[in-house]
Specification:
- By secondary structure, the chain is mainly α.
- The chain has one domain.
- It contains 10 helices and no strands.
- Helix 2 packs across helix 4, helix 4 runs antiparallel to helix 5 and helix 6 runs parallel beside helix 8.
Length: about 230
Amino acid sequence: MNELLQIFHDLPGFLDGFILSHGPWVYALLFAIVFCETGLVVTPFLPGDSLLFAAGATAAASDGNLNVGLLWLILFVAAVLGDTVNYHIGHYIGPRVLRFENSWWLNKRHLESTHRFFEKYGPITVILSRFLPMFRTFTPFVAGVGAMSYRKFIIYNVTGGFIWVTLFVWGGYFFGQIPFVKDNFLYVIIVMVGLSLIPWFLGVSRHYYLKRIAANAAQSAKPLPDAE
């Protein structure tokens, strides 16, 4: 466990050593990690944002041993494929598990409410969860459980995967070798995640603000009761 934590703490160093020892197999390793982190609900502990950023930074310093264009493509495919597999696992398991009428937890009402939630808020949830550890792993599974429209899911799966992989891989490529960034690697990742979430939080806040204004306007438009 200590060795695993050390790897997570110094991902660029780990990737440098792996490239020296195994060469192009690093692409397969990175594909497997991203695929498992997004595609299997039992592996939410695997690195996501930090791995993408570290891989981009390593590509910038590898003298061509790690091609950033190929790296981006492989990780993009891994992210989209992982979410797709996770969705189908949830879609297969959900109706078979949440099928009881009288169960307190595993009942049809939860399945139906989950479906309604993902039909209404699924698109922004699928995209936003890409930037949230743990949620990134569980969201596609729950979307499948809730039978979110697959056509809608795959559109936002691809969109979210594209934004996520592009932001962190190319961010690492262009900024990962700056001394301040290298010395404060984990803090930089946290800041990047926070900055990437700002547009989504503004959008959600605007949605609820407008909804509140509409509700207040509707309340004000109600006729007053006749005085006796």
